[in-house]
Amino acid sequence: MKINLVLLASSAIALIPHAASAQSAETRAIQLDEVVVEGAGNGQSGAINANGYVATSTRSATKTDTPILEAPQSISTVTQEQLEDRKPQTLLDALAYTPGTSVTNYGFDPRYDAFTIRGVDVTYTGVFRDGLRQVNSPNGLFRLEPYGLEGIAILRGPAASIYGASSTGGIVDLISKRPTFLPFREVEVQTGSYGRLQGVFDLSGPVGSDQTLFYRLTGLAREAGTEIGAVKDDRVFIAPAITWKPTADTTLTVLGEYMDSTTGGTAAYVNEYAPYVDRQGNITYKSVGATRQFLGDERYNDFRQKQGRIGYEFEHRFNDMFTLRQRTRFSALGTNQEYVSSGSPGLVRETNWGIVSDTHLESRVRTGAVDHTILTGVDVSRLSYRSKEGFGGVPVGVDPVLAYRSNQTQTLTGIYVQDQLKWQNWRLTLGGRHDWLSSDFASGGTIFNRDDTKFTGRAALGYVTDFGLAPYVSWGTSFTPNPGTLLSGAVAEPTTGEQVELGVKYDIPGYNASLRAAVFDLRQENAVVYEVVNGLNQQVQLDLRSQGIELEAVASLTEGLNLQASYSYNDARILKLTPETEGNRLTAVPYHMASVWLDYTVQDGAAKGLGIAGGVRYVGSSLGDNLSRAVLDNEPRTYLDAAIRYDLENIDPSLRGMRLQAHASNLLDEVSQVCTSGYCYFDEGRKVIASLRYRW
After folding, report:
1. How far is CA 5 from CA 129, 350, 527, in A?
2. C-alpha–C-alpha distance, residues 619 and 641, integer Å
3. Which first-to-last residue range defines the signal peptide (predicted)?
4. Are 496 and 454 in contact (CB under 8 A)?
5. What is the pLDDT of residues 472-524, one digit of tens each?
6. CATH number belonging to the domain at 11-695, selected among 3.30.70.890, 2.60.40.1740, 2.40.170.20, 1.10.1040.10
């Protein structure tokens, strides 16, 4: 769900100040005895440690090196090996097999990574990068290049007690590729559907022989089309990184990125409208379904975005008791979004910049028979954006006058403390944080200023048995500032939330396999959702309740078989919006979702090194708007994905390091209408990509 979705139904929308805001919604890891260190060729432990598909620990959950089994929270991961096997092209592709995560709400729309966790929209408030909040503005959301990732950690449920501004549904922490201690190099070329041509490289290793300075340089260039002729998928990406490790106790890593990408200003289709009469007798026009007519115009539909970030991670271990860490990142982006609706051109130009910094001290102490891992920290973030919008009044191909302008600045400061207590088999986590938020918004001579303060907390209790079973119960709250304005014109209120979760994890003894289950009940007040009225999409706020069950299994077995499977049941209901919607199911949240991905590599014989994989994703029925109009009901859908690969060294040893791979998403070309917030789209059709990689 997002602010700028091209949903303009007629040229009359040009008279609405927020016209442009109507933009349509849119080497394997090294095998160690027990742990695989993420990053091919890596020689260091990172933010996610895993053995194949099975992650053993991640700092994302607690900001400390805590085994996933012992972290009393629902956690999923996408490891480096999963990324290599599935080759996701977007964040949504990478999360598609994660329980509780819905990534199909807007059909095909490459402009934004819009998704929900546990029925809660996390597009703006749930994406983190390397443990720091990724700041976004209404039309300026950072695009992700999956090739630049080592892995992804998905935390379901509130994490505000240590992360501050974040969604009640959870957060997704994107882990950037870091320098490796061992030399690693790879290049790859790709081709595929819609004239796709792509080249990538990834180079890393030590600088010099003293083993104190290490580098990594990752890059990508792509020229491609999509199933909509007016929508491009072009990209240039470069990500340099340096690690300086003067001693065993001190590490400084600098991470950078620059990306220039172009896609379509709209990827939407024309919807049909019919009058709708509410209980008060008011008449509005609402969608009754999508047509196959493209809404925009290929002559004026480029959405170009330039983005960059530079930051560092510093860690110093004073002794066995104290470790200091600091992370800081500066980021900025600029957009130029062209679109055409009802024959008139529209343009949105937006710039934003943000700085985020988190400093914390980890203290390990013992009181009697209880071990404590205490985290005390402070973080500060600042977001500032400027938006200019214009619509109509000029021929297609000419930029309209940018008559509507707005800007906003948000500053958030938080202090937090967390104590992880360990006594025999018991694990108790207690955390608390206090935030101060300042927000200044200006538009058309009108200024809105507000200051908020909020305490958030977390308490969780778990029991870790000697045979790998770990039940837990947790409670947590959240606090989230929201960028932009509401349909009424007022600044969006901060969102607050609370959740209770009961779960169990089981690491199967003797196998590299893990089973996880969780039951949750969460509530949000002033949650931001979107409503489409007369073709115009705007933010509104509501209170909601979401309840559900999640099951997950991951395994990497010695016989060459990898497995990831999940099932989710989610009942999300509106508690407060309008009299007509109270008690209704929340739009586009299916009761049932399930997925399974199987990957097998032949271990010996003539086919040794051949890898075959397949995945099935099931998305149950859901409602197309919050009014529960049957005409917009979304039918159940099933998608089939597949992949095949072969290491050429099994033919000829001189071809060592070369791999052929092909991947198909939505192999059976399942394309259905999907409606969200009262507007309808179509799923992305079949896409096939083939690649040749050389690693040395």
Report:
1. 25, 15, 19
2. 14
3. 1-22
4. yes
5. 999 999 998 876 666 566 677 789 999 999 999 999 999 999 999 999 999 99
6. 2.40.170.20
